[in-house]
């Protein structure tokens, strides 16, 4: 209980929803070892011109490039020669997918807007590899305990106390700290469920994959769509964003357990979920265009050249499509 004024409260809808979520979690965990390849083709959706994790393609190209050409047989080196004495160099081991993901997470955990607001869940890489369950929880927990999470809880508490829009809280320092604690609990629960628990259960990537190229309208629509669609770990295709939809709703239902009477209920949890999704859409748009803003006004590139590379590839692809269209039109004449 916060400040001695919180009471334990759980509505019929809350209990039913949480029980259903627990049953779903146990069912999905039991079948986590089974492949989803046979069903992904029917359920996945492809967004246009989205950044694709190039894991399998890159691996295949790397294998082709590293495949040794058959060399002619060489005569054995004479005893005492330098070639006979030189030890064979062991091949350099290729980094595993887990190691690559760990490096990319470390890059993301350094990302901040002007060194203040964390953007740990944003990936600027079009070749980002999927995260393991443990890496998803680590990234989620890291975001939840960042100093900015505590600072934003204090700011939210100050706003609500000044507006006096939540009933059941006393006025003054006691009420302010109670509001702050509840605001942080809301953020923590939402982060852990929407970017940790639910994405692990449904094998989805909780990160926002920035597009970084194309028209502004296309990028805005893409940003908003990612609040409803997420990439699958097993094939890189798009499917409903269960983390954002179910995770935020579950966090709202859990908040019924610690909010004072008059501030809880199934309807308020549903309303809170809609608000969270709307705020997430605004955040996605900001994350999409922040590197452009930073380069123009602050002369800093948060992507460290990844944007330039993506735009060059996009331009080359568009030029190739135009040339192909011209060749096709010329051949028909």
Structure description:
Strand 5 and strand 6 form a beta hairpin. The radius of gyration is 25 Å and the shape is elongated. With 333 residues, it is mainly α. The strands form 3 sheets. A two-stranded antiparallel sheet has the order 1-2. The protein has a two-stranded parallel ribbon with strand order 3-4. Strands 5-6 form a two-stranded antiparallel sheet. Helix 6 packs antiparallel against helix 8. The N and C termini lie far apart (79 Å). The protein has 12 helices and 6 strands. It has a domain at 96-325.
Strand order of the largest sheet: 1-2
Count of beta strands: 6
Order of helices and strands: HHHHHEEEHHHEHEEHHH
Report low-confidence residues grouped into runs of 5 or more: 1-46, 52-86
Shape estimate: elongated
What does the main sheet amount to?
2 strands, antiparallel
What is the end-to-end distance? 79 Å
- Helix/strand-derived category reads mainly alpha
Mean pLDDT: 77
Show the helix and strand layout.
Blueprint (H helix, E strand, L loop, with lengths): L11 H19 L6 H7 L11 H12 L15 H4 L11 H12 L3 E2 L3 E2 L3 E2 L9 H12 L2 H17 L9 H30 L5 E2 L6 H10 L3 E3 L6 E3 L1 H14 L10 H33 L7 H27 L1
Parallel strand pairs: 3-4
Antiparallel strand pairs: 1-2, 5-6
Helix pairs in contact: 6-8, 7-8, 8-10, 9-11, 10-11
Name the descriptors.
59% helix, two-stranded antiparallel sheet, 12 helices, disordered N terminus, 4% strand, 333 residues, two-stranded parallel sheet, mainly alpha
